[in-house]
Amino acid sequence: MPAPIEKLLSAPAELTDNRASKCPVVLMTRIRLARNLANHRFPGRADDSERAEIFARCRDSLATTPGLKRSFSVTMDELDEQQRQLLVERHLVSRELADSKAGAGAIINRDQSISVMVNEEDHLRIQVLRTGFQLKKAWNTIDALDSALESSLNYAFSSKLGYLTACPTNLGTGMRASAMMHLPALVIVGHMEKVVRAVNQLGMVVRGLFGEGSDASGSIFQISNQTTLGETELVIVKRLQSVLKSIVEHELNARDRLLENSPGKLPDKIGRAFGILKHGHLISSSEAMNLLSLVRLGVDLGYFPEEQRLAVDRLFIEAQPGHILHRSGRPELESEERDQLRAEKLRSEFANFTPPNYDSVGLN
Amino acid sequence: MASPLKCDLCDNQATVHLTQIVSQKVHKVDLCEACAQAKGVTDPGGFSLADLLLKASLNPEPSAASGLRCEQCGFVPEEFKKTGRFGCPACYEALTGMIDPMLENMHKGTAHVGKVPEHAMERKQLEDRLTTLETDLKGAIDAERYEDAAKFRDEISQVREEAGMAKATSI
């Protein structure tokens, strides 16, 4: 394996190692900006040499941008499928980029809170990730980064349509702001459908953990703005913020109601999840997500110490298939072997977990 | 007799019709049974509906799209129907007739009110100024107003210098 990717994988990262801003319900916040260079064809239509030229130019500009010094630069063709999968599971590159041809790559900063994809659907997809609920902070970071980058890259911009993007659904601000929400109680009481519909009405979209078309295992949903043209970035961010706040409230209310109406239900689910994680020998990735989801709920309810939330969030990523395969050091694994290794990893992590204490008072 | 509606995703007859109101705008999508199944539309908990509706709004009106072509990259509207993406930034100006009606249903508004990239605007202003001056220069030469022509020529080299400086800082 080439050295840079190994270095990146072992460095402490925002999502898996930043204890400070972990909170109930909101796993992480993300904002991305779509940007293109003037006078170049969009990546889907550019030939290999133009894509290579675009990559080189963007990489050079990014390397001198404040906040991205000493960052990692990787191209997709220098990585094998396993390594690309690891980046997807860490939310650093999209599946689309991982499957892309020549000239596709990413520039990722040290703590993996900033990742700029080059030659995905647009020339640049600038992304800022923050653990917990930090939309405003993420916006300030990405706004400054984008402005700095713009001084050395000639963006395609029209005063009428804003930032010009390959797909017209991203025109205007080119911004998609989102949060990963952990909503187990809303799923259990069967209210998710209502939430999805209400959120749609407000111009927001609900997706699974890995974006368009992915499922909602672990009761984790990505909620983001749908439209990008006709409003300022701050108006969009503020509206999303208030929608997210009200979803958090609904989730917390659903938890309270569950505890009140059937007091045994949540402790039972959480206790069983803990038992399987601690003693299971074959665990699929979607089962792992669902079990970890219940343990995170247990942390929110005060059954487990607060510090263990960080470990759960880290395991959400490390229990994914690519991470299990990488940890095994083997080129490939049968699915049963993978489930066995996943269970082994989870057993060893949960051996050190403080067992649940159902008498402690929850956060609710 | 009106021809039966075609599925938005393939050419089969549409039998599933969905209407949803998003941000006070009506969105409609027509699908055949197979596509509806494949997209999880029939699953009551499915949340792919919003993405699907957004994609449906990408269908250009055939009449608005005919005969258009982007001179910069050779892109024609038929390709958009296949990929849902344009060829280059200049397509937006070349294919305005097809894009404008599409935007109405897609976004909150049809005009950008957000962030403006300072440098890109400066560069654009200089370019526009240069174009105007070059036209003026040609007009002056044609009319044999040589004093004016000399003035325009000086101005052009001055603007070029400024633009050159802007370029020098951009790599």
> Segments of chain A where pLDDT lies below 50 for 5+ residues?
none
For the termini of chain A, the CA-CA separation is 47 Å
The biggest sheet of chain B, with number of strands, parallel, antiparallel or mixed sense and barrel status, is: 2 strands, antiparallel
N/C terminus separation of chain B: 62 Å
What structural class do you assign from the helix and strand content of chain A? alpha+beta
**Poorly predicted runs of 5 or more residues of chain B:** 166-171
**Quaternary status:** heterodimer
State the order of secondary-structure elements of chain B, H for helix, E for strand. Answer: EEHHHHHHHH
Could you report the average pLDDT of chain A, rounded to the nearest whole number?
A: 91
Q: Can you tell me the overall shape of chain A? A: globular
User: What does the radius of gyration of chain B come to?
Assistant: 24 Å
Polypeptide structure, described:
The complex is a heterodimer of chains A (364) and B (171). In chain A, helix 10 crosses helix 11. In chain A, the strands form two sheets. An eight-stranded antiparallel sheet of chain A has the order 2-3-4-5-1-8-10-9, with helices on both faces. A two-stranded antiparallel sheet of chain A has the order 6-7. Helix content of chain A is 46%, strand content 15%. The model of chain A has no long low-confidence stretch (mean pLDDT 91). Chain A has 14 helices and ten strands. Chain A is α+β, with helices and mostly antiparallel strands. In chain A, strand 3 and strand 4 form a beta hairpin. Chain B has three domains: 52 residues, Wheat Germ Agglutinin (Isolectin 2), domain 1, CATH 3.30.60; 56 residues, no CATH class; 44 residues. Chain B contains eight helices and two strands; from the N terminus they run E-E-H-H-H-H-H-H-H-H. Chain B has a two-stranded antiparallel sheet with strand order 1-2. In chain B, helix 7 packs antiparallel against helix 8. Chain B is elongated. Chain B starts with 15 loop residues before the first strand and ends with a helix. The interface between A and B is large, with 61 and 49 residues.
